[in-house]
Amino acid sequence: MVRTSSDWRIATYDAYMRTRLRNGGISLIALAALLAAAGALRSDTPQTYPGLTKRDKAYFLAPEIINFVRPGLIVKIVSASIAPDGTIKAEITMTDNAGLALDRLGVNTPGAVSVSFVPAVLPNNRTEYLDYATLQETDPASGRTTTEARTDPNGTWTQVGDGDYIYTFGTKATNFDATATHTVGLYASRNLTAFNAGTQYSNDVYTWVPNGSPVTHVHSEIVVEACNQCHDPLAAHGGARRDVRLCVLCHTDQSTDAETNNTVDFRVMIHKIHMGAELPSVKAGTPYTIVGFQNSVNDFSKVEFPALGPNNCQFCHAPKLATAPAHPAADPNAWLEHPNRAACGACHDNVNFATGQNHANLPQLNDNLCTACHFPQGETEFDVSIIGAHLIPEKSTQLPGVVFAITNITNGGAGQSPKVTFTVKDKAGNPIAPSTMNSLNLVLAYPTIDYQAVISEDARKAAANSDGTYTYAFTAAVPAGTKGTGTIGVEGYRNITLNANTVQAMTVRNWGQNVDVNFSIDGSAIRPRRVIVTTQNCDQCHDHLEAHGGFRNEISHCVLCHNPNATDTPFRPANQQPPQGIAFKMMVHRIHTGEDQESDYTIYAFGGTPNNFQDIAFPGDRRDCVKCHVPGTQEIPVQAGELPVVNPRGFINPEGPITAACLGCHTAQDAAAHAQLNTSANLGEACTVCHGQGAQFSVDSEHAR
Question: Which distant-in-sequence residues (6+ apart) come within 8 Å of 68 by Cβ?
């Protein structure tokens, strides 16, 4: 007889329960140990279990354990009601990813499930929720007492079926309005760490009107998919709160942090957090902090919004995302159509609406007249309309644009000086003379297997051709003996004055998107450089990657200069030697590791300016390699021919190509010692033995969550 996975699960669980009954009880942790001892260890065999990917720890478990544990957690609110006396009840279901019922207590199915609820009302005369469950908090230092919204305490459970429960809230909806919109939200977690499957999370909300009327009055402006462009995923308060629909139920204008007296109203708090270092109050010397659970101090004063700065409202209020997800925003244009003092004053926190200070001397005692001046969009850019006032200059439609094309590369053999034929046009197709560019460089790097040298030359004196193209001949030559494929890229910008002859006149750097073209040095077939990271992946969080003043903006271009031999020597002061390595694979990991680095990483840039990246609070999860990497390229081994990385300030110099990437995140000295001990001077790195694809500690399995 052939036994199926479900048969195995039933048989295993049956044996487990009989053993438990016979011996007076055995823990699931003990069962996990028994399964492991029986050979049910992790595997790289692709799993077909619903919802599992290589980003999940459970993906790497043996099928036998997966079929027993049935990882995943889906908690749904089926219905909710309020009795005449204000008693709130919610019926929920709990299942795993395959839809099988779960036991809340973890007795009949592995992993206890913890669930917390928030009961809230959206009064007919308000646009923000009120939480029914609140508490009073007193700050011992100031004696200040404030109200804080919270989850429901002291509720009771009734099981009505397999995985089917009714929760009766401990909080009552006193004097509730049966015609108002009501919402209950929940966040749940299922602890499967005993099985090396981590903790599973689930959020859900349910909205209804108690008198049975249809829901027409809603508060739904932002979708969590917008947050997850950077946050990957949004996981607040320890990781269990993952849905903006849930966040707004607690983060209401009822709630104030007693220690700082800062409101935690969602529309205020979120704007201030993302404004961070750009807040007028922070620039004036007052940090923006919130004291959270167990008196944890959360200082957001150094936050820098990565998507072109905090003026980029539409990155979060994202039209492209508002209607796409499973739970679309019902009112995605609220930020445009309903400006208010709370949201606007969050970023512009030097405005005193009562007196009119920093508000054109116009007092604003309520929100009724905000739209008189701040309508969605005006006839001209940079006006007081909402879109106009927040327009990022580089996105102005007044900019003519710069578009590069490299049409031919000749004379590119070893010992020769390449000749490059190219065009520069505006976005309407009109030619731009290179001599009119404020900056125009052609960048030569070789070979593509791993760039080891780079030459940049000013191409503004390129010769004009009769067909509208231009040709520039490098003064430098490709060194004799060079083999393989080379690359030539173009970068540059023009300074354009917007709103000329007005008080809003401004000069904007209008750059072109980098173009990089390969050519054969030795006559062999062109071999493009491997693609590890794409600019599109960077733009998920950065909106538009803009380095070095904006005109370095394609990953294919970044790696020309940020090659294994590159350091910050040209800009580092003599008294700050030795130089810092800036190879792309090391530098980008170090930058995004940010405040979690255990050793200093400071790069000196143009003008001798030091850039220390240890204040960066990376908003995502660095274990999710494919957020940046092309899938599969985060795994090792490396491609034959990759060079060691020069890193004079590192624990190891030079670093092997695998070591350089890994030590970009694993910055402690013991990690460097581990890498050094597993590197042979004659034979290279032994990383693949333990960390290669299919190995017990493969890159994917160790980064799974």
Answer: 8, 9, 12, 13, 35, 110
Tell me how far apart the alpha carbons of residues 521 and 447 are, in angstroms, rounded to a whole number.
9
**Helix or strand (DSSP H, E) at 244:** helix 244-250
Strands 506-511 and 453-458: unpaired
The correct CATH number of 403-550 out of 2.60.40.1930, 2.60.40.10, 1.10.10.10, 3.40.720.10 is 2.60.40.1930
Give the type of residue at 319.
P
Contact 659, 675 (CB under 8 A): yes
Question: What predicted TM-score, i.e. pTM, was given to this entire model?
Answer: 0.90
Determine contact, residues 696/690, Cβ cutoff 8 Å: yes
Taking the C-alpha atoms of residue 214 and residue 162, their distance in angstroms, rounded to an integer, is: 30
Q: Which fold has domain 74-216?
A: Immunoglobulin-like (2.60.40)
Bridge partners (DSSP) listed for residue 92 = 77, 165
Question: Dihedral (C-alpha) 369, 371, 374, 379: value to the nearest 10 degrees?
Answer: -130
Give the domain ranges of the chain.
Answer: 5-69, 74-216, 403-550, 562-703
Instruction: Find the range with the poorest average confidence among 66-75, 200-209, 631-640.
Output: 631-640
How many secondary structure helices (H) and strands (E) does the chain include? 20, 25
Q: pLDDT tens digits for 580-632?
A: 999 999 999 999 999 999 999 999 999 899 999 988 989 999 999 999 999 99
The CA distance from 395 to 507, in Å, is 13
Token code pair at residue 398: 């007044």
Alpha helices, DSSP H, located in 442-531: none
| Per-residue model confidence as pLDDT tens digits over 400-444 | 999 999 999 999 999 999 999 999 999 999 999 999 999 999 999
Tokens 């960048």 correspond to 443
